[in-house]
Amino acid sequence: MQFSLDKSIEILERTPATLSVMLTGLGNDWIMNNEGVDTFSPYDVLGHLIHGGKTDWRPRVTMIREHGLSKTFVPYDRFAQYEESKGKSMNDLLESFSALRKENMIWLKNLQLTQDDLAREGMHPVLGKVSMQQLLATWVVHDLTHIAQISRVMAKQYKEEIGPWVEFFRVLNF
Fold first, then answer.
1. Which residues of the chain form beta strands (DSSP E)?
2. Largest Cα–Cα distance in the chain?
3. Contact assessment for residue 20 and residue 94, using Cβ atoms and an 8 Å cutoff
4. Long-range contacts of 53-57 (CB under 8 A, 24+ apart)
């Protein structure tokens, strides 16, 4: 599928509701377990999405619009949520993410980006030149990847319990 800002917004706007349906009211066995060292639990993923909503996507779009290639993006701290989420409940995170995403979608729509804007480039600290279109497409894939990650981590909580059926579920063997 070719990139479309409208189609991208369709996904970005739905992520908070998707995660709310998946995670609201679940016990810690579902939301706090992960896949091992340096991996995220569903709780961690939500904190990561909030941190990215504050410090990654919007600031990078702004940087491309204002500075193009003359300024390099600030490196993203993939683990900042560990500190930022401390003491917060899953419900707190879900509410915060929903409000932040709503605000960011209003902001993104109000930019009224043109094809020329989407072709503008910025400088990623590791990848080098990236276009606004690539950044926005990555935001969508980032959301979808983390939704899949949450599903995978939760499914793995029953990996042993399903016995021989494990061979039929690829999600359990990643």
1. 121-124, 128-131
2. 56
3. yes
4. 53/97, 53/100, 53/101, 53/104, 54/100, 55/80, 57/104, 57/135, 57/139
CATH number of 5-173: 1.20.120.450
Element (H, E) at 7: helix 5-23
Residue 72 three-state SS: strand
Radius of gyration of the chain (CA): 18
Q: Which two tokens stand for residue 144?
A: 């979808």
pLDDT digits (tens, 9 = 90+) for 88-122: 999 999 999 999 999 999 999 999 999 999 999 99
Cβ atoms of 128 and 8 within 8 Å: the answer is no
pTM above threshold 0.90: yes
* Phi, psi dihedrals of residue 25, rounded to the nearest 5°: 80, 0
What residue ranges do the domains of the chain occupy?
Answer: 5-173
